[in-house]
Amino acid sequence: MFKRNIAGVALMTFWLSGTILAQPQCGSQHLVGVWSASAIGWTIPTASGPWPTGETLPTVGVGLISIDHSGKLSGPGTVVFAGLVLDYEMVGTVSVNSDCAGLIKYTVKIKGFPDLGGYVERFVLDVTRQEIVTASVRSPISKPMWVMTMKRISAVPAAATWPELPAQN
Predict the structure, then answer these.
(1) What is the pTM of this model?
(2) CATH for the 28-154 domain, from 3.30.1450, 2.60.40, 3.40.50, 2.40.128
């Protein structure tokens, strides 16, 4: 009887240790580096600008995001909606829970516009695939309805730069 109990405890311990190891364990170290980003969705502008307000507009964007060891992010990008091509710089912060869910808070700086602070994205980090998938939940100028996929292209944070567009003829 005693041996059966010992064997049962040993098997239970082995089974539980496998379950515990299978749980996602994320931390800020999994975010550090340079990430490519692509976004697609719709936006309904609520603030005045060179775009129509109140209309649902298809939106796409690409960018590079560098995240340092303290969770600060920065990088350039381009967003296209309402026939406009807008280059921007973003700065902000990122944090992740041990369950791999996280939050990105950022400000966008578009040439010729005041800083647009208050963007928030919820995300899930897939450590194995080195990928982040986000959903926009707050925008200072619109009702956001876009998703973004980020793929780590370097584990070393570095200043990301965006090439200048050639002049139009």
Answers:
(1) 0.81
(2) 2.40.128
